[in-house]
Amino acid sequence: MEDDFVSREKKILSILEQEIEDGEEMTAAVRKIAEQMLLGEKGYLPGDIRKNVVFDVVLGSETVKSSVDFLISVDGMISMVIKCAAGSLNSRERHVVAAARVLGDYQIPVAVVMDPMNAVVLDGVTGKMTGEGFETIPKKDQIRRMLSGISLVPLPPEKAEREKRVLLAFDAIRCCIPQGADGGVPLGGVSKE
Question: Domain limits at 118?
């Protein structure tokens, strides 16, 4: 009886490991698509794009790592955050909005989650969807115009802890936050508290 249990457990673990590996490969493919799109049709320059950004999230007395796939700056202002996923974008919308709200000194105005087939663009402050589809990801000149008409505001302190918890809950579900020299590029220069 115990041998059957161990055998089933090994099979289940093998299936889970394969699914995680497949998801990581698909997410890597989405990152390639996103980068090509940003540099090509969206008009961003390599210096506007920071990839695989790892940042600290301070919650109480603990500091935990989180990450985003891309941070996009226009005229020196971080204006868009992108998270790539293997699928199920609607389940990741709240994740990217939480990242946009807690990543820096101000709430990043545009939050995007994308998979190989689609993208969802959200307002980083309100969390409301502003577009769906790759064509709705803002071009550099659109971001520049948008930035000239808005104030970049910090997250109210009473909301910060909740947003950090949301972010870290999604990170825990994902189970693979890149860390260190091999897995990510530290944020650097942007306050995380």
Answer: 2-186
Per-residue pLDDT tens digits for 18-65: 655 656 767 788 899 999 999 999 999 999 999 999 999 988 888 989
Query: What span, in angstroms and rounded, lies between the C-alpha atoms of 55 and 78?
Result: 14
Rounded distance between C-alpha atoms, residue 104 and residue 73, angstroms:
12
Asked if residue 75 lies in contact with residue 88, where contact means CB atoms within 8 angstroms, the answer is no
Residue 55 lies in a domain: yes
CA 182, CA 179: separation in Å to the nearest integer? 7
DSSP code for 127:
-
Query: Looking up tokens 């995007």, which residue turns up?
Result: 112
Q: Give tens-digit pLDDT for 111-145.
A: 999 988 899 999 999 999 999 999 999 999 999 99
| 191, part of any domain | no
CB 115 within 8 A of CB 93: no
Mean per-residue pLDDT, 144-167: 88
Number of domains the chain is built from: 1
